[in-house]
Design goal:
Strand 10 (179-188) and strand 11 (191-196) form a beta hairpin. This protein has a domain at 4-115 and 182-230: Class I glutamine amidotransferase (GATase) domain (Rossmann fold), CATH 3.40.50.880. 24% of the residues lie in helices and 26% in strands. Helix 5 crosses helix 6. The protein has helices at 14-17, 19-24, 28-37, 59-64, 81-92, 107-113, 209-222; strands spanning 4-10, 43-49, 67-71, 96-100, 121-123, 129-133, 147-150, 155-157, 167-174, 179-188, 191-196. The protein is an alpha/beta fold. A 9-stranded mixed β-sheet has the order 2-1-3-4-11-10-9-6-7. Strands 5-8 form a two-stranded antiparallel sheet. The structure holds zinc ion (ZN). Residues 73, 101-102, 154, 200 line the site of zinc ion (ZN). Zinc ion binds next to loops.
């Protein structure tokens, strides 16, 4: 059986500096995501981090990745522009991207959206978050209830400096009263980008079965396989105009 090659990238900074975060994610956030994705036999999952050679993403791994999952929070500026350019072009050529939580402020996500997507209101708090499903029969939301109930999550709020998404799948409501469009698809070139807000490092969000379901189903949705080379070249037009 051919598998979808998934690469989970994490800046892995909080986990190294905080015992509290390590207690929640002993193998790192990337290790946790790799672990639940591996329950799906159709996925071949690699977990990497910023502190590895080539910032975790050598060309050999980039070129075989079908779907990239990105978690970053405080080290966005440490990611090299050269790496961001490579990943940007891989998305344009069909690689799926799942941008989690504060990946909205990453260089890669901002470049793909073409805006200062990092701008929003936020508050680190103990607010309860209900992540409401807006399209219950979508391949990413199938099997969920009306909302995902997260006892605590970092608050992000509208207005977002995002372009209008191609698909809107989730809206967060917080017990503090704020709301946010929190799960969206953006089509970029030949690639699909899924942004999903839940996942602040100090809460056990990625242990939540509904969140795991969303991320697993999103991998399948943004996966497009390798485009045939002919789709990436610019052939002569079939009809030559005679002068
Ligand atoms: Zn956060």
């Amino acid at each position: 059986m051919s598998q979808i090659n998934v690469t989970v990238w994490n800046e892995n900074v909080h986990e190294r500096h905080s015992q509290h975060i390590r207690d929640i994610y002993p193998t790192g956030i990337h290790g946790c995501i790799q672990s639940f994705l591996q329950a799906d036999p159709s996925l071949n999952v690699t977990a990497v981090s910023l502190d590895m050679p080539d910032q975790g993403l050598p060309d050999s791994l980039i070129n075989q990745t079908d779907v990239l999952i990105w978690w970053g929070h405080m080290a966005h500026q440490e990611v090299s522009d050269q790496l961001v350019d490579k990943l940007f072009h891989r998305v344009q050529n069909g690689m799926g991207l799942i941008a989690l939580h504060s990946a909205h402020a990453s260089k890669l996500f901002s470049k793909l959206l073409g805006t200062e997507s990092w701008q929003m209101t936020w508050r680190e708090s103990e607010d309860r978050c209900l992540c409401w499903v807006t399209e219950p029969n979508h391949p990413i939301t199938r099997g969920l209830g009306r909302y995902i109930d997260l006892p605590a999550e970092e608050m992000y709020s509208e207005p977002l400096f995002f372009p209008r998404p191609d698909e809107l799948l989730f809206i967060n409501w917080y017990s503090s009263g704020e709301v946010m469009r929190s799960g969206m698809i953006f089509n970029r070139g030949n690639g699909k980008v899924f942004y999903f807000q839940p996942g602040h490092e100090s809460y056990p969000t990625y242990h939540n079965p509904d969140v795991q379901r969303v991320i697993t189903q999103a991998v399948h949705y943004v996966y497009q396989g390798m485009l045939p080379q002919a789709a990436l070249t610019c052939p002569k037009p079939p009809i030559q105009k005679e002068l």
